[in-house]
């Protein structure tokens, strides 16, 4: 029986400080998997440069030149973390039996890959890396992240609690996942939709080994909003329910005002009228904003623009020969 070919997919964006530290860690872990977990010697580590502006791509090309286990592809411009992960998965799909995606910063425990591969050999096609705790995060980030997962599940989006983008996926699952053509990507919510046997492995998240995080609050909120609007229509249904509730209250208010008029108890009230107008106007603007977000996503999806564009590869000649 042939050994399993593994590709470790690592998205990178301006990681010149941390990449020299974590690349040897990934290489050592890959060797461990080759030696003890029936992983083929043809397995690779694939770095995906998301249009970095520093020396990240140069470091990747140097690594690929020094060790055949390292490969690299580069996006034509910065397109975001989710696009880079997808690009790496699709690049690896034809040649490898399984992929493991993991961030470059060293916060995710690389040794959890051993449990992932073991679970795959037991029949699981998808294995999620789940953080057992978030001690390395600030109190604010920890509370907002946990609230985000609960909120996503409340809105009907199927996400694995405390799981980001550290996961093992088999090529069989990736072939089916490739049929999902969304431009608005939220991989941690899309992968569970494919199905197939899955499980989770748990690990402790560490502090970033070097450099600074490239995922500030603004980007996290944007990702969260993309996840909600890409995977669930519950916000639209909540708007409908809210509209019905406001309409009901307004109808009761009309009946009440008519009764008060005939009883001769009406008085002019600027404050009450202003409050009602402000309340209804605010509800309308919020509803229009949410509906507009969905319309915007429909607009982007109908364009069918590419979700990633690869401009360079460290093994360009081999790739071109393969395409011929």
CATH homologous superfamily name of the largest domain?
Spore Coat Polysaccharide Biosynthesis Protein SpsA, Chain A
Let me know the number of strands: 8
Kindly give the count of domains. 2
What is the CATH class of the largest domain?
Alpha Beta
Shape: elongated
Proportion of residues in helical segments: 40-55%
SSE sequence, one letter per element: EHEHEHEHEHEHHEHHHEH
Radius of gyration: 25 Å
Indicate the structural class: alpha/beta
Instruction: Tell me what portion of residues adopts beta-strand conformation.
Output: 15-25%
* Order of strands, widest sheet: 7-5-6-4-1-2-3-8
Describe the protein.
The protein has two domains: 229 residues, Alpha-Beta Complex (Spore Coat Polysaccharide Biosynthesis Protein SpsA, Chain A); 70 residues. Helix content is 52%, strand content 15%. An eight-stranded mixed sheet has the order 7-5-6-4-1-2-3-8, with helices on both faces. Helix 2 links the parallel strand 2 and strand 3. It is elongated, with a radius of gyration of 25 Å.
Layout of helices and strands:
Blueprint: E1 6-12, H1 19-36, E2 44-49, H2 56-66, E3 70-75, H3 81-92, E4 98-101, H4 112-121, E5 126-133, H5 139-154, E6 163-170, H6 171-177, H7 187-194, E7 198-204, H8 217-231, H9 234-262, H10 270-303, E8 310-313, H11 316-323
Parallel strand pairs: 1-2, 1-4, 2-3, 5-7
Antiparallel strand pairs: 3-8, 4-6, 5-6
Helix pairs in contact: 9-10
């Amino acid at each position: 029986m042939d050994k399993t070919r593994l590709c470790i997919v690592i998205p990178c964006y301006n990681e010149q400080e941390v990449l020299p530290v974590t690349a040897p860690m990934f290489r050592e872990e890959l060797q461990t998997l080759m030696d003890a977990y029936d992983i083929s010697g043809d397995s690779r580590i694939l770095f995906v440069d998301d249009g970095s502006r520093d020396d990240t791509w140069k470091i990747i090309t140097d690594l690929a030149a020094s060790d055949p286990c390292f490969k690299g592809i580069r996006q034509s411009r910065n397109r975001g973390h989710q696009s880079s992960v997808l690009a790496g998965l699709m690049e690896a799909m034809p040649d490898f039996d399984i992929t493991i995606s993991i961030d470059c910063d060293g916060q995710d425990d690389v040794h959890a890959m051993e449990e992932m591969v073991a679970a795959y050999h037991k029949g699981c096609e998808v294995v999620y890396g789940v953080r057992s705790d978030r001690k390395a995060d600030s109190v604010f980030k920890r509370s907002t992240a946990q609230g985000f997962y609960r909120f996503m599940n409340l809105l009907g989006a199927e996400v694995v609690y405390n799981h980001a983008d550290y996961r093992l996926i088999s090529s069989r699952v990736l072939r089916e996942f490739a049929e999902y053509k969304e431009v608005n990507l939220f991989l941690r919510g899309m992968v569970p939709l494919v199905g197939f046997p899955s499980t989770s492995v748990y690990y402790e998240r560490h502090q970033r080994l070097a450099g600074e995080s490239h995922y500030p609050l603004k980007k996290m909120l944007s990702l969260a909003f993309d996840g909600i609007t890409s995977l669930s229509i519950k916000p639209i249904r909540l708007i409908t329910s809210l509209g019905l509730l406001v309409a009901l209250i307004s109808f009761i208010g009309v009946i009440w005002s008519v009764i008060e008029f005939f009883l001769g108890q009406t008085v002019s009230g600027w404050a009450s009228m202003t409050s009602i107008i402000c309340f209804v106007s605010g509800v309308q603007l919020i509803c229009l904003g949410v509906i507009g977000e969905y319309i915007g996503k429909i607009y982007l999806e109908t364009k069918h623009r590419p979700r990633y564009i690869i401009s360079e590869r460290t093994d360009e000649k081999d790739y071109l020969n393969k395409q011929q």
